[in-house]
């Protein structure tokens, strides 16, 4: 829907085929009633006719464009009472989803076909352009099932022999998309880890420097590593974050039954919370029924507790 920002036409009343296709597809995907479609159509018309708005001047910041249109449409719909809408949960999200889908598809086709500046006119362009081609596609660091729906919803989109590889920290995304052939990447062996460490941190340094590096690795979490592993933690809801922090500080290598007992009075489904942490590769369960969190994740969790503002502390460490 937001592809109309790339054209010279800036009003929703213009008969841009890409806009029409986008609007129809979004309505169909969300099973909107005729009344809901009319409300959206009127709201978009009103936004397009707002005096003094010039979308072209926002050319340098696509995020601003999306946010501005979403906010204007939200204002229009909020001003139109309807018992069929629960706030903006139904209507606002598809706008942002659709814009993201177009961007992802254009990037994928540009990379595969080695053509810059590809522009799509509908969400079926991947199947249209690649259905007879044998391709290898790696979708790295997927964090939303909608990305898979946009880029590789069906195997029939690609030619025979094609392979699609998806990497993610969230196993639930693969399950939601019906992917059953999963491979869990294990930690390297001690020998492999030693080679990595020697190659990246200790080369051309003397013994004293080696000791300093080892001490630093044991006590301080590298900023780049922390930024990478913190993504999974920040994607959790507040109660799941609290569960993660408690495990990091108190319950690493403890039996899961103990954790469930400790959270029994908190009105929180601890068992489901543990499953979420497992699916997001933040913990795993040992054969003895113990909760195991990698040392780096434990360090990150402990540091997150230390950095909380005093009035937000959920856990107190070294109270003395």
Count the helices. How many?
14
Indicate the overall shape: globular
- The assembly state of the depicted protein chains is single chain
Q: Alpha-carbon distance between the termini?
A: 57 Å
Q: Topology as H/E string?
A: HHHHHEHEHHHHHHHEEH
Q: Bin the strand percentage.
A: under 5%
Count of discrete domains: 4
Mean pLDDT: 73
Helical residues, percent? 40-55%
Q: Strands of the biggest beta sheet: in what spatial order?
A: 1-2
**How many strands, what sense, and barrel or not for the largest sheet?**
2 strands, parallel
Structural class, please?
mainly alpha
Gyration radius, in Å? 25 Å
Secondary structure: number of strands = 4
Low-confidence stretches: 1-15, 50-67, 77-96
Task: Give a written overview of the molecule.
The protein has 4 domains: 2-100, no CATH class; 131-185, no CATH class; 187-218; 221-312, Arc Repressor Mutant, subunit A. With 320 residues, it is mainly alpha-helical. Mean pLDDT is 73; it is low at 1-15, 50-67 and 77-96. It is globular, with a radius of gyration of 25 Å. The N and C termini lie far apart (57 Å). The chain is built from 14 helices and 4 strands. The strands form 2 sheets. A two-stranded parallel ribbon has the order 1-2. A two-stranded antiparallel sheet has the order 3-4. Residues 100-198 form the NB-ARC domain.
